[in-house]
Design a protein that fits this description.
By secondary structure, this protein is of the alpha/beta class. The protein is built from 19 helices and 24 strands. The strands form 8 sheets. The protein has a 6-stranded parallel beta sheet. Helix 14 packs across helix 19 and helix 16 packs antiparallel against helix 19. It is rod-shaped. The structure holds adenosine-5'-diphosphate. Adenosine-5'-diphosphate (ADP) binds near residues 583, 587 and 589. Adenosine-5'-diphosphate binds near residues 555, 558, 586 and 587.
């Protein structure tokens, strides 16, 4: 027979799903996003600096540092000094020079001429441009004399996240009608030796053409709908790339240090303010020129960082949540502790390991998922364990109570049997006395048998051990049999017992023995509690929904509160107890269990002084109910 109970794992599964929703809300809130980004910064620091993989990728920064400012005064640097520095750098034969300085203002004509002359070189030079910060601002492009001799112009905008940390740059920046690639990207293109069309775009990538040979193009992941932003795979914190102070260019031979290097020229002086925080920063920001160097380092290394697809993240959340819930639903003791710890460690470690492979996962969200699923399913488990404990305590107390009651109830017939058999054994009694004694022994042993049978039935029914054996049976005939069994008892109290069957089909499918017990219990109660001379009716009724077996009497009845407890085990009303009528408070409990086992129910309508009507409802065509 089918169990209609909810499977034990279902609440865990539902809680697991609900906790996914909760973790999503927490993890994708602005606060959650922020912590996710902090987790990413942690991965950077955990990984530590990552030097360039090849000497071709060596980047050197020529810095307008504090020593430079101390020597040449505040920014901007005199053009003649700048011209001299650039001439020195380019004479050292670097692979490329990227100038992270805005050269949009004219100064003295001869200084500008000398700078333009310095920029004219066989080595590629990339100059910087930036959009004025004011709304509708113009591009601060290098003077035409400079741009005409440069190999490319790239923008030097950084793109800090809302928490002020710079983790990405926009590879393309639009301002008005003009659009510029980033300084780092232009540098990369020149280093690649791209031949036209140089940089092409797809939805997901920027494609940088290689040297003339086909198939050498490089795909840079920078989605169009993500403003072509590139996650910078920072090589390290401040000063990861070697730096040479601009002042040393004036006094020392830097030829060897710059030869065949990629040289960035930019401001690093602390007072200049061009600094932004990066995942490696602690207190001191990183100069813009180092950020651009890091962006180029990312492009050159090809170790791109890509955020995981939202669908993959969602899948991971479900996986974590269901795994946690399954552990809590099925494991116990040390195994459970180990499973939860393993999941927790995996959830902490996996995003870091994936980061090392170039994939950005929301670490906080994943960890949060593990925490919420553990908390939700763990609390539910505590609740269930607590409930089971208290249920088993109630069961223990009840069986103790039952045991005491059984012992007490069995004692009186036992004593009667003992007393009578002793009399029979000791004395020579006359026939009439002997008959009386044996009759008493028989009666009392029957009473004991009934009592034992009741206790066992109640136990077996509640434990689900009483198997239903449905078979076609004739209900009116069964009802008539029970009435016949009780006719003598009714007559003793001058109670009129009527039985009527209103169009009930002759055959129903039910367990004969159990159904007989249920009807018997209702009828004995009615006879037991009704005063002499009253009437008890057993009515069988049929409607489209099922069959109703009613036992109606005009006895003492019960109030609402009593009716509420009437089907509890061992419950007896005060009136019943005072009446002295024998009973254990089990008959109705058993009758109701039998009705429930048939897929039906037992109900009562009663009020004090106005009799009672008990109704067993049986669904039509009962084939199976509870076991
Ligand atoms: P008991 O062995 O006490 O009769 P039951 O479970 O059969 O146990 O009944 C529980 C209690 O319900 C009875 O003790 C009595 O108080 C009340 N009761 C049952 N049937 C009737 C009835 N027909 N009229 C009034 N009270 C009843």
């Amino acid at each position: 027979m089918k169990k209609t109970l909810m499977p034990e794992w279902l609440p865990y599964a539902l809680l697991a799903l609900a906790s996914v929703a909760l973790a999503l809300i927490a993890g994708w809130s602005s606060y959650g996003e922020r912590i996710n980004r902090n987790f990413l910064d942690l991965y950077f620091r955990q990984r530590g600096p990552q030097p360039a993989a090849s000497a071709d990728h060596d980047i050197v920064i020529v810095a307008l540092d504090d020593a430079t400012l101390a020597r040449f005064g505040a920014l901007p640097l005199p053009r003649s000094v700048l011209a001299q520095a650039i001439r020195t750098i380019l004479n050292s034969q670097p692979r490329l020079l990227a100038v992270d300085l805005i050269l949009s203002d004219a100064s003295a004509a001869d200084s500008d001429q000398s700078l333009a002359a310095a920029l004219r070189s066989s080595r590629p030079v990339v100059l910087a441009t930036a959009l004025e910060t004011a709304p509708g601002g113009r591009w601060l492009n290098p003077l035409p004399d400079f741009s005409s001799v440069s190999a490319a112009i790239g923008h030097v905008h950084a793109d800090p996240d809302p928490d002020g940390v710079n983790r990405r740059i926009l590879l393309a920046k639009q301002g008005g009608r003009e659009r510029y690639w980033a300084l780092a990207l232009e540098s990369y293109r020149l280093l690649q030796g791209s031949s036209p069309p140089l940089i092409t775009e797809t939805n997901d990538d920027l494609v940088v053409a290689g040297p003339a040979a086909p198939g050498t193009e490089v795909h840079i992941p920078a989605r169009r709908n993500d403003e072509r932003s590139l996650w910078i795979n920072f090589a390290g914190g401040n000063d990861t790339f070697p730096q040479i102070s601009l002042t040393s260019l004036m006094d020392q031979d830097v030829h060897a240090a710059l030869r065949d290097k990629i040289v960035f020229l930019g401001v690093t002086a602390q007072g200049a303010g061009d600094r932004l925080f990066t995942p490696f920063s602690s207190g001191l920001g990183m100069p813009g020129v180092e950020i651009h160097s890091n962006a180029l380092h990312t492009l050159l290394s090809g170790k791109f960082l890509l955020p995981a697809a939202p669908s993959a993240v969602l899948l991971a959340l479900f996986f974590i949540s269901l795994l946690t819930a399954a552990s809590l639903a099925w494991l116990h003791g040390p195994r459970l502790a180990i499973a939860l710890a393993v999941i927790g460690v995996a959830v902490l470690a996996a995003p870091y390991l994936l980061f090392l492979q170039g994939s950005i996962w929301p670490g906080f969200l994943l960890l949060g998922q593990w925490v919420t699923a553990s908390a939700a399913c763990g609390s539910y488990r505590l609740l269930v364990v607590g409930r089971k404990l208290s249920e088993s305590e109630i069961r223990r107390r009840r069986s103790q109570q039952q045991f005491e009651m059984a012992a007490h109830e069995i004692r009186s017939p036992l004593m009667a049997i003992q007393g009578s058999s002793e009399l029979l054994q000791r004395y020579h009694l006359d026939d009439a006395k002997r008959e009386q004694m044996t009759g008493l022994i028989f009666q009392e042993s029957q009473r004991m048998g009934r009592l034992v049978e009741r206790f066992l039935s109640a136990e077996r029914l509640t434990a689900g051990e009483m198997e239903l054996r449905p078979a076609p049976l004739n209900l009116p005939a069964l009802a008539a049999t029970v009435v016949d069994q009780l006719r003598a008892a009714a007559d003793r109290k001058s109670i009129q017992l009527h039985c009527s069957a209103n169009g009930v089909e002759s055959e129903i499918n039910a367990d004969r023995e159990l159904l007989e017990m249920a009807i018997y219990n209702l009828l004995t109660n009615a006879i037991k509690y009704c005063p002499s001379g009253s009437a008890v009716d057993l009515i069988l009724d049929q409607n489209p929904k099922g069959i109703a077996v009613q036992v109606a009497d005009n006895g003492p009845g019960m109030d609402k509160e009593e009716c509420r407890h009437i089907f509890d085990r061992f419950y007896r009303t005060d009136t019943a107890q005072r009446s002295g009528a024998p009973g254990y408070g089990l008959g109705l409990f058993i009758a109701r269990e039998i009705a429930l086992h048939h897929g039906g129910d037992l109900t009562v309508e009663s009020s004090l002084g106005a009799g009672s009507r008990f109704t067993i409802y049986l669904p039509c065509g009962i084939s199976e109910g509870r076991t």
